[in-house]
Amino acid sequence: MSVSQSLYCRLRRKTIPIFSLSVYLIMKYFSTLLFSLLISTGFSQNDFDFFATADNFLGTHCSDGKVDYTAVKSDPNLPKLIEYIGANASPGGQEKAYLINVYNLFVISKIANSYPVGSPMDDSGFFTDKTFNLNGEKTSLDYLENGILRKEHTDPRLHFALVCGALGCPPITNFAYRTEFLDTQLDQQANLALNNSAFVYSTDDSKTIYLSEIFNWYEEDFGKNKKEVIAYINGFRTDKFDDSYRVQHYPYDWTLNDANASKPTEGGSTAPNPTDNGTNLQTFTAGSLLGKGKSDFTLFNTLYTQDHGEWMGSRFGGSRETFVTHLFQYTLGVTKNKRINLGVDVNFRYSGRSSDTTLSGVSTAFSFRNNDTARVGVTSVGLRVKVQPFKNVSDFSIQSTFLIPTIEDPEGRSADLSQGITGLYWADWNRYTWWNQIFYSKTWGDFQLFTEVDLWFRFRRNETQISMLDIPASAFLSYFPTKKITVYAMTQHVHRFTNNIAPNDPIINDPVGVSMNYTASGVGFKYQFLPNLNVELLYTNFWRGRNSGLGNTLNLGVKFLTK
User: Fold this and answer.
1) What would the pLDDT profile of 428-466 be if each residue is shown by its tens digit?
2) Secondary structure (3-state) at 556
3) What is the span of the domain harbouring residue 39?
4) Are 490 and 475 within 8 A, CB to CB?
5) DSSP-assigned beta bridge partners for residue 527
6) The CATH number of the domain where 418 resides is what?
7) Which of 9, 111, 112, 232 is most buried (CB neighbours < 10 A)?
8) How far is CA 524 from the centre of its chain?
9) Which DSSP state fits 464?
10) Which positions ≥6 away from 558 have C-beta within 8 Å?
11) What CA dihedral angle connects 124, 398, 563 and 127, to 10 degrees?
């Protein structure tokens, strides 16, 4: 009798059906397998040493403060580390060291997922998007840094250990932070950063201390005032700063800390040298956005003068008209990811008309009087919002401004139009103006192309007025011969559409509407005096037009960036 037959007979004697036996054996098998898997998983989790794995990973791919992102993409340890972080809480008593490593690994992982890129800021949601799992909870880099680490561990040295993937950050270490060595490691990083002349430095000639923007963004972590901040820094420095010097923050370098980027030439560096006062402001355009808390003060002064023009196919002249505008713009960044800015515009104008068609006739505009040949005043104010609509396209932005006239009769027309009385001279448009601007820029090497298309609506306020739509299109080509000098050429074409013209208008008697257009071109120059201050000069010639004046402009602009 075979073994199987014997077993069958014994089972028959115990009256256990074959079907029940099969179910029993299957359940026993899967129970054993499940138990083995659970035991195996438990041992796997216990055997995974996060700190040792992170230490090996960073030691393999980080060198001289940069990361080999090409090699990182194929390293199987990175997904293991990210998976572990997503499923596990901070080890008991080791939270601070653990989360510093987590932050740096999250940054490396996020960059590696979209590599090759030129900067972490190529992704406008890099710091704010909740794309990471931390112990089963979705989180962002911003919340990890500010909502957990800085909130629960008050320690300014964190800012020298958390690395955001840019050259402007303190260099990333080639080791993991460990609780038993953490104070020594953080002191070491603070010492390296604060004694590095490319990170903080001073110049005796200008009596200025230049600090990283980190000391601006997190000012409250380092002290209540300038002296306390300098005292904190001097606590780590060998060569102490003079606390009587003024403090200036140089522009942050958001270039990716990529070990595979082009190597510097002998004696040179691929990173901007802060002793050159930075270069970021060179490529700053009307479409550029500011980070949270940063401000832009711009004063653009324009003198336009004309002694002839074209109207209804005929040339007109015989007098010189001059208009001077001081446009003051204040802009504030309201989001850390640089996608929303708010601002205020104020226009102060004065103008004049003279029978002297030579350049001497320009002086009438500077009489600063309100009469039939000259005007002066704050003519309009406006509120402005600028946005980056697509988070992955940082060079594209849209700005919208609504302007309201602020002086009486800014267009200089009296109420008695039937007699052709013009009254006061023209100062500004007596209409609500909605100004929409679409910006796009592209920078490559020492060149930049900046383009702008506008929709400029002027809404009629009474039946004697006309509504207008201007559609300007502009292009600026810039060249950067040095880190402080910019030269550029520009051209602009404007087409204006009008409607609702009152038939009793003594100047324009056309119920259908008048179309006008003009083209202007010019050359400009910018000089960057400080990392956050530049001056701009632009000359423009209006060289063709239909139903428009044909004159020249001289523009002087001043831009100052601050917190």
Assistant:
1) 988 899 999 999 998 776 788 999 999 999 988 877 677
2) strand
3) 3-47
4) yes
5) 485, 535
6) 2.40.128.130
7) 111
8) 24
9) T
10) 298, 299, 533, 534, 535, 536
11) -10
Tens digits of per-residue pLDDT, 259-299?
Answer: 987 544 333 333 333 333 333 577 789 998 888 888 999 99
The token pair at 308 is: 């002839």
Annotate 72-128 with three-state secondary structure. HCCCCHHHHHHHHHHHCCCCCCCHHHHHHHHHHHHHHHHHHHHCCCCCHHHCCCCCC
476 in the same domain as 463? yes
Phi and psi at residue 7, to the nearest 5°: -65, -40
Q: Which residues pair with 403 in a beta bridge?
A: 382, 433
* CA angle in degrees (0–180, nearest 5) for 33-35-41: 100
Question: In this structure, is the dihedral angle defined by the CA atoms of residues 140, 141, 145 and 146, taken in order, positive or negative?
Answer: negative
Distance CA 245, CA 237 (A): 16
For residues 233 and 250, is the Cβ–Cβ distance under 8 A? no
Answer yes or no: do 40 and 74 share one domain. no
Domain shared by 14 and 54, yes or no: no
Phi and psi dihedrals of 374, rounded to 5? -155, 150
DSSP letter at 37 equals H
Q: What DSSP element (H or E) covers 216?
A: helix 214-217
Q: What's the CA gap between 161 and 172, in Å, rounded?
A: 7
Instruction: Identify whether residues 218 and 357 lie together within a single domain.
Output: no
Q: Which helix (H) or strand (E) holds 342?
A: strand 340-354
Q: Are both 383 and 371 inside the same structural domain?
A: yes
Does one domain contain both 180 and 321?
no
CA–CA gap between residue 462 and residue 474 (Å, rounded): 32
Total number of domains constituting the chain: 3
Of 248, 276, 304, the domain-final residue: 276
Instruction: Note whether 204 and 294 are same-domain residues.
Output: no
Q: In what order do the strands lie in the sheet with 208-211?
A: 201-203, 208-211, 246-249
pTM greater than the 0.70 cutoff: no
H or E stretch including 191?
helix 182-194
pLDDT exceeds cutoff 70 at 19? no
DSSP letter at 187?
H
Q: Which of 261, 276, 291 marks a domain boundary?
A: 276
DSSP 371-402: SSSEEEEEEEEEEEEEE-SSTT-TTEEEEEEE
Say whether 305 sits in a helix, a strand or coil.
Answer: strand
